[in-house]
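Technical appendix A lists one of the benchmark inputs used to test multi-chain prediction within the project. The record comprises two sequence entries:
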Amino acid sequence: MLDATEQFINGLMFGCLYALIGGGFTILFGVMRRFNMAYGSTIMAGAYVALVPVYLFRAPAWLMVLTGIAAAVLVGLLVEFCCFRFIKKGHELAPLMTTIGMLIVINEAIVHATDAVGLKYPSPFGDVALELGQFLVRRDYLAVLVAGVVCFTLIFLLLYRTRFGRAMRAVAERPEAAQILGVSVRRVNVLTFVLTSALAGVIGFFAAVSVGSARPDMAFFVTGKGLVVMVLGGLGSLPGAIVGGLVLGVLEFEATWFLGATYRDILAFVILFLVLVFRPQGLVGTRTT
Amino acid sequence: MDYYVAIASIIGIHALLGLSVYVVAISGQMSFGQQGFFAIGAYLAGMSTAMWGLGLVPALVLGALVAGAMGFVVGFPALRVRGLYLAIATFGFGEIVRLAFLNVRYTENIGGRVVGPNGAEGFRHVRYVYDRGFTGLHYLAVILVVLVVVVILFFLLERSKVGAKLRAVEEDETAAAMIGINVTRVKVVAFAAAAAVAGLGGGLFIHYSTYIDHDMVALPLAIASVTYPLLGGLGSFVGTLLGAIVLVGLTEGLRGLQGMREFVYGGLIILMMIFRPRGIVDEALVLRVKSWLSPRAPREPVQAP
């Protein structure tokens, strides 16, 4: 029982990473009303580029995070420019396809730059587990928890305490009305990409740290988790994404403990399928679609 | 020569997968899970010939039937949701199938070789076709015959009442329901038929390559299969065929470009969606071609009042 509780705590902490991934997808989806398949690649690009200062000199962790954020923002702006800006109105599926095209291009660029081998990631938080009472807690998971709390606090402050946040929520709710009231929808869209891409930089760093390496299949892994979290929480709901991320984290750790690692991923997708079909508004949502 | 036979075989198989997505697409939905049915068809047809001693034709039929039945079982609950939700739900289904085959072990020792689904090792030695002296060219003929049969069925479907119903459901579900179309039944039947076509493609594939594993039916295959109809155009099944020929032909033909293939592939998708969001063969083009063929057909798309 003690071990199951320990897995629960680990799952909750690692779930913060899933919550962040789901949060990034959710903000983009909420404002753009489109799904960005290239978001996973943006995260991966951030994780890889964050390694560059490590290769040049003994860079501290904060410099890696900043480099990752800068790279991810550049990639995010590129995605917005190539995949969203020139799409004609009324073609719902077109951005889905263009972002898939972008995903292919970014992944290939990374494979080219690294010869498709995973790169070892430094562990700035140390490898020794921390003892909290009877429980052993991994330091990098603890860092993920802190990063999650900080990022979500900043995001909520931005959304509910600033003019830009209000403009974002207005565009998410009703773009035409917001436009009439003098909000520049295009500006909000671009700034949303900057915000979520900066988040992608943070996610990329912590995802790679907790796995121990940056690998070219990271984009697919992250996209899969992001989809599940988004759906668990209800499409477009930020609190839902947090709940969904934590639920998925706990479920995966308990499933690994009780059933073994091979059944962990199946479980995630079975839950995804069932929730989508029988509770499409998500676990916490009440809105009917 | 072998090289071109191989490319043509892959085009034929991928065209079937694209047609499978196309059927779902003309009922107004997008599926990212057809590779799951492809995998089911492949594994079943492979087991049929390599382990159960069936012939090629019964094996392909069995694969298609089971995939179709699976499509019915999955489609019934899944088609309650639509749009992005369905796209994600079907992708979830595809992943469930893939991860299931990652875990399934059901092997026999035949002639010193381990035959059958063998977890992460994949399913090796489905040599029915080549053991019977078929060459690549012979097997290409088999693929093309199957493709032609499916295409004829599609041609009949597009001119039939069922085809009209599908288009009606895509255009406006409420209106379709009001003129007495059973929307759910039309969608589920279309989904099951689509699954069967994908299963057929899978059965053909495993006998072509003699081998399949879970990695081959992951997200990249889903993306490829969706790209053919979307790039080729949703106005007619001809678009899907064209999409498969252009994309497979291009990417295989570009091998000389070394690692640049994926860049061209991705860039092409982006440019295509910006300039022709309904694909090469879109509805407007279909109407124009029809008006050339028969002078009585309307020359311009009729605008709703």
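The first strand of chain B starts at residue 108 and ends at 110. Chain B touches chain A at residues 30, 77-78, 80-81, 83-85, 87-89, 91-93, 95-96, 99-100, 102-103, 218-219, 223, 226-227, 230-231, 259, 262-263, 265-270, 273-274, 277-278 (CB under 8 Å). Comparable benchmark entries are summarised in Table A2.
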